[in-house]
Design brief:
Layout (H helix, E strand, L loop, with lengths): L17 H14 L5 E2 L11 H12 L12 H15 L8 E4 L3 H11 L5 E6 L4 H9 L2 E6 L10 H5 L6 E7 L11 H11 L6 E5 L25 E6 L12 E4 L2 H14 L5 H12 L3 H23 L13 E2 L10 H12 L1 E2 L1 E2 L11 E4 L4 H18 L3 H16 L2
Parallel strand pairs: 1-10, 3-4, 3-5, 5-6, 6-7
Antiparallel strand pairs: 2-8, 7-8, 9-12, 11-12
């Protein structure tokens, strides 16, 4: 008997994450014997530190096998609060923290709280694609705000403020940004916070999951350091990227007092609680030695320089230096190919997985996301393969076009 599906409309509005699709395709090619270098997926290629793994093993042996509180064990929430105070100088109440499995549930919770037909939610374009998917799912109207292409997709407060309307309920900010790796300047954040004084009903979800990962003299300013925004700020963070723990699924939201209870209710309704063993690992991550994090960032920095320099030598490509996260986002317009064409053909023909820029929004067309959370050897081999492919497939006049694009962009970026 054929089953007739009669589902809620919203379920058909969910989208997937391109990096997961490309990862599955890459695995399939590998299983057929093809060599594939994956610079598509955004996860550190480091192992979780030994002291964190040990803390999880100890928790298992010590018998932490039962339910934990829905909002997370108090020791972890206190460790998160202490970490935020240490890094951002902001005092937070551990009772306003809700521990969840990874970064994503905090996004979903915020959409469930603010999104409904008739409401508007602003999000960055290009930006992590799960946001537009979840806004669509909530049936709110998605309002993309562009990041400045000419300046490595820098965040501009004016672009956000000019799109606010009486229907706006929530603004999403990703800082440091995925896919571009840009870090919002303090002056733009100041401007945003001042501009929002006139819109007391608008809340902000600040995704700072890459907050620790910045380079050179660029530093990350957390929106939680603005006392005047605290009652309307949701801060999203977690262990996935900083502590190389993507598979453990541990994240949290720091909620304003008015929303904490809703977030806890969503947690108890959706998953009950986060695995306590993982929560003990999270405490060890936050309060234990941080030298592995520093080493990881130093390694990313070296790879970042190698990748950006090499990309700029490839025909038809130009790449700004990203200042945070672990992504480079080169402009590929002068190759004459679209983002998806290069994504698909490089995977099939060169054995290199990267992500088309337009999977992060319309502003990303003409760009590709490279993750440098992969070994230097992998990055260098991937670039050798791409160079060969480009020399076979891109005409020499492209070189001239490419340097022209680079010069034009550099002159427009203040
Ligand atoms: N936020 C951003 C900006 C991300 O790039 C990602 C993952 O790539 C997440 C959140 C999700 O993190 P998690 O894997 O912990 O759910």
């Amino acid at each position: 008997m054929d089953v007739e599906l009669n589902l809620a409309k919203s379920i058909s509005l969910l989208r997937t994450e391109k990096a997961f699709e490309v990862m599955a395709k890459a695995k399939e090619l590998v299983s057929r014997g093809q060599s594939v270098i994956n610079l598509g997926i955004g996860q550190p290629d480091f192992k979780t530190s030994h002291h964190i793994v040990e803390a999880a093993c100890k928790a298992l042996i010590d018998g932490y096998h039962a339910y934990a509180p829905a909002n997370g064990i108090i020791e972890l929430r206190e460790a998160i609060s202490a970490d935020v105070e240490l890094r951002c100088g902001a005092k937070t109440d551990p009772n306003h923290i809700v521990v969840v499995p990874g970064g994503r549930p905090t996004m979903a919770f915020a959409m469930l709280m603010f999104g409904e037909p008739g409401s508007e939610i602003l999000y960055p374009d290009p930006g992590y694609s799960i946001y537009s998917s979840l806004i669509g799912f909530s049936r709110a109207t998605p309002i993309p705000y562009p990041l400045d292409q000419k300046c490595n997709f820098a965040f501009s407060a004016d672009e956000v403020l000019s799109r606010l309307s009486p229907r706006t309920r929530l603004i999403i900010l990703i800082n440091p940004a995925n896919p571009s790796g840009s870090v919002a300047s303090k002056s733009e954040l100041d401007k945003l916070v001042i501009g929002l004084e006139k819109y007391p009903n608008v809340f902000v979800l600040s995704d700072e999951i890459y907050g620790r990962i910045t380079y050179g003299n660029v530093s990350h300013t957390s929106l939680i350091s603005y006392e005047e925004l605290r009652e309307r700020l949701i801060l999203l963070d977690g262990c996935s990227k900083t502590y190389a723990m993507t598979g453990w699924r541990l994240g949290w939201g720091i909620w304003p007092a008015s929303l904490e209870q809703y977030a806890s209710y969503l947690a108890v309704n959706f998953f009950g609680c986060v695995n306590p063993v993982v929560q003990y690992a999270g405490i060890a991550a936050l309060v234990g030695p941080q030298d592995a994090v520093d080493r990881m960032i130093t390694t990313f920095d070296k790879r970042r320089k190698i990748l950006v320099q090499s990309l700029n030598r490839l025909p038809g490509m130009s790449c700004h230096e990203p200042s945070g996260a672990f992504y480079a986002f080169p402009n590929i317009r002068a190759t004459g190919f679209s983002s998806v064409e290069l994504q698909d053909r490089w995977l099939e023909e060169a054995g290199v997985a990267i992500i088309a820029g337009n999977s992060f929004g319309n502003q990303g067309e003409g760009y590709l996301r490279f993750s440098y959370a992969s070994s230097t050897e992998n990055i260098q081999e991937a670039l050798r393969r791409l160079e060969k492919w480009l020399h076979r497939n891109v005409s020499s006049k492209t070189d001239k076009q490419s340097s022209q694009i680079l010069t034009e962009e550099a002159s427009q970026c203040l």
